[in-house]
Amino acid sequence: MSLISGLLLLVLTVAFMEGFAYVMHRWLMHGRLGWVLHESHHRARGGRFELNDLYGVIFAVPSILLLYGGVQGEWGAWAIWVGAGIAAYGAIYVGFHDIIVHRRVAHRIVPRSPYFKQIVQAHRLHHAIESREGAVSFGFLWAPPVEQLKVALAGRLRASAGDSTAPRGRASERA
């Protein structure tokens, strides 16, 4: 496999991982089963780690297996590039989500670009809801416009405040 093909596969894997992360965050982590671990992330952290950190370990397993299989198991170069793409997405996630947004490591980074401001605001809006239902913005590297998220969140907050006639589900499904 050429270097250009490998790098393209790595970039495509990172892009795929954003979609995969959205699906896992929306329907697994905020689902009944996944909330067992993810709930800790929507509460104040009492120490350095939270149960939600186990998702990082779980999602690292495919990367490790692909890298190992590509290097030692003769699976082919594709496995190395895909495994590296998954690992790259994990590193981006840690850097953006854990360090920049949640400040799990002390730093002086201030998001100034419109992109970073939007991503940080979207993630903060996601955390405006502490329950597993009603949250907005489940992506990590892409988010809808902040104003759109605020409208969706306001509707969900009204619905959870006791308006039993308010529609449930995603804002896009109600529109």
Structure description:
With 175 residues, the protein is mainly alpha-helical. The chain is globular, with a radius of gyration of 18 Å. The chain starts with a helix and ends with a helix.
H and E string: HHHHHHH
What structural class do the secondary elements suggest? mainly alpha
Largest sheet: none
Low-confidence stretches: 165-175
The number of helices is 7
Number of strands: 0
Q: Give the CA-based shape.
A: globular
First CA to last CA: what distance? 46 Å
Task: Present the secondary structure layout.
Elements: H1 3-29, H2 35-38, H3 54-71, H4 77-101, H5 114-126, H6 146-160, H7 171-174
Helix pairs in contact: 1-4, 3-4, 5-6
